Amino acid sequence: MKITDIILILINLAGALAVFLFAMKLMSEGLQKFAGSRLRHVLSRITGKPLSGILAGAGVTAAIQSSTATTVMVVGFAGAGLLSLGGAVAVVMGANIGTTITAWIIALFGLGNGASSDGIAFSLPMLLATLSLFFTYSKKNKMQYLGQTIIGLALLLVGMELLENAIPELSDGVVETIATWSHWGFWSVLLFIVVGAILTIILQTSAAMTAVILLMASQGWIEFPMALALVMGQNLGTTLTAQVVAMTTGTTGKRAARAHLVFNVAGVLFCLLLFYPICNGIMSMAGITDVPSDPINRQRYPLAITIFHTFFNVGTTVILAFFIPQIVRIVEWMVPERKEEGEEEFRLTYIEPNLLSTAELNLQSAKSEIEEFSKRVLRMYTFLPGLRTAKNDEEFEAIMAHVAKYEDITDRMEMEISRFLTRVGSGDVSEHASERISTMLRIIDNLESIGDTIYQIAMTRQNKRDDAVHFDAGLNANLEHMRDLVQQALDIMDRNLHDYDHVDLDAAYHAEHEINHFRDRLRTQHLNALKLGVYDYAIGNAYSSLYALYEKLGDYVINVSEAIDSSRKHTED
To answer: What is the pTM of this model?
Structure first.
């Protein structure tokens, strides 16, 4: 084979792979935009138990014909907080089962059909592309996203056909050379596992690799045991993409990727222990003899390899499904939690430098980060009582330092999350995602304002201490009650931030009403006290400043819940 021929083959293969990967991205993004926020609710329901997660993984993979794509999405969902680690492990197990559908399609319909199959192969994509036109030009965004999904599916089918047509051209040279490596006994099995892993890594698609293995076996280029070894290697190679994607995710995403690796490695080790008995059993089941050159054997190879592929993935899943908690502990050991820098150090937990594949995933990361933002604000609020009860200047200054540190953290969190949301919004986002971005920007603006107001309360306390202003028991009791009312409002706000679709706005308004009502009561009492000369101007000024700041803080708190509820109503409309 000439060098120019090899270059042309590689270019053809790269083009086919580009079509396949672009189609997969297009379809995945279309589905996620079409699903919107409902996607994470569906995932949380179907992955509550191992069986539902396994079935979900198998179904999704069977639909998109790529366990790699499913696993990449699982890693992204886990990293974004959409999936628990146990649920992600179950979905990954199911993905390995779903990928066997590809082998069955090729074994039953894809081999031996001749050139006439090309027309059939491209007629379905053309039909899907035509159907998508009815949705793409719809005025409703969701219908446009459905059209994008159908176009992606059509291109996915085209890409798979191009891959299957491009890869066999390697048979003139490379494949025959590989076939000469099958005469070294068990070492050949290990070698072909490595070869299968490497080829899958290069192709980045288990579907295309399945076609290669079945074609090589049906043409007699490799012996049956070596084909099974390639299948095992394929399962190892398909884990690499998930590992690469996990590099840009958080701890949970990295653990999900490691779980995929642990699962497949365990399956390969299990089959290696019983490799020849399994191989002989499948050969006997398929009626394959010990004569490799027998044409009848070659006709039966694809079906026998498909049976092994299914046995390998289903058997491994059935066995390891009982050990999901142990797998979780293993990957938690492999990927420990990030070393804490201290509670009062600025760090983003869920947002990564690189954007994930779709706006929905990025917004889930931002939502988790906003929940962490709220947690920091609530923690900051708990410092305030200590400023009144501090026994000496050293204790008071230490608490003030905590408050100042948290105020700086809230400023930086608001800036970083805002910058992240702006980057997400500058891309191709749905109307729902755009509305959610606006909501989140309003939320973080108010959370930062809450932090500022808490700092102002602390500074008022410091000025009061510096001026030697002292409140009596009644004034302290009033301010403590006001502080408790704001605490209740903050707790309601924090709960609402965890579920945008079920906002308890009535409870939020009730808390706001209680704060305003008590503020009005304190203001009336304060004005009467000044008229009667109950306390001097310095005490009155510090006292009125504090209860006014608490009420102001309550305004920012209710703004958060109103922003969430407004977004929900807009989406429903």
So the answer is: 0.58
